[in-house]
Amino acid sequence: MYANGYVCLSLLNTWSGKKEEKALFFNEPGRGSFAKYSALEKTSMAYNEEIWEKNCKTMMFLLRRPPQHFQALVNEHFREQGPTILSACMAYVHGQVKVGDPVVLDATSSYRAYKISKRFRKSMLNVFPKLLALFASKGASVEKFKAKPLLTEVKRKRHGGNVITKAFKKLMQVFGWPKKDKGNKDENKN
């Protein structure tokens, strides 16, 4: 939201402008003239990731504590839009769609075209199950998201495992996802 009370429509994924106008960072006042410089692309991606994280946290806050007299509106909105928001989280984390770009339900490919930061991935691992539970509590159709993990690929450290791996294992346990059968470790070494 700007000081004058306006809300940036691209943050709400309701802006229908040209593709090159959808990069959030470059739409901010004073930054539009830099859109043609690829050196700022990383800054733009970091900004988009941060804005998406803050949007997700704002959604969680609204779902937990909707404004007085707007409870029904908030509940209805997230009951209807919950699947789209969760699809966006998954598409962004899997690099199928650039963070901040619109996502069409069930239309993303498995091809990874965009790289995301480790910080964003870690944040989404934390936020996604909370959003999922909150949307489900409002009656959103989110069953398909319970059946598949947010991250199917987790890089493991050789010595012990890392925070993401532990968080992923905890998610699998919470949602009752089956553990992968690793088989005999000696047979897998070549």
Task: Name a few traits of the molecule.
single chain; 190 residues; mainly alpha; 7 helices
Count of folded domains: 1
Helix-strand pattern, N to C? HHHHHHH
- Quickly give the structural class: mainly alpha
Give a count of the beta strands, DSSP E runs of length 2 or more: 0
> So what's the oligomer here?
single chain
Percent of residues in helices: 40-55%
Low-confidence stretches: 153-160
The first-to-last residue Cα distance is 56 Å
Q: What can be said about the biggest beta sheet? A: none
Task: Figure out the total of helices.
Answer: 7
Topology:
Elements: H1 24-27, H2 41-64, H3 71-93, H4 118-137, H5 143-146, H6 163-175, H7 185-188
Helix pairs in contact: 2-4, 3-4, 4-6
Short note summarizing the structure:
The protein has helices spanning 24-27, 41-64, 71-93, 118-137, 143-146, 163-175, 185-188. The chain has 190 residues and is mainly α. The protein contains seven helices and no strands.
Question: Can you describe what's shown?
Answer:
With 190 residues, the chain is mostly helical. It has one domain (9-33, 40-178). 48% of the residues lie in helices and 0% in strands. The protein contains seven helices and no strands. It has helices spanning 24-27, 41-64, 71-93, 118-137, 143-146, 163-175, 185-188. α3 (71-93) runs antiparallel to α4 (118-137). The longest helix is centred in the N-terminal third of the chain and has 24 residues, at 41-64. The chain is globular and about 45 Å long. The N and C termini lie far apart (56 Å). The relative contact order is 0.10.
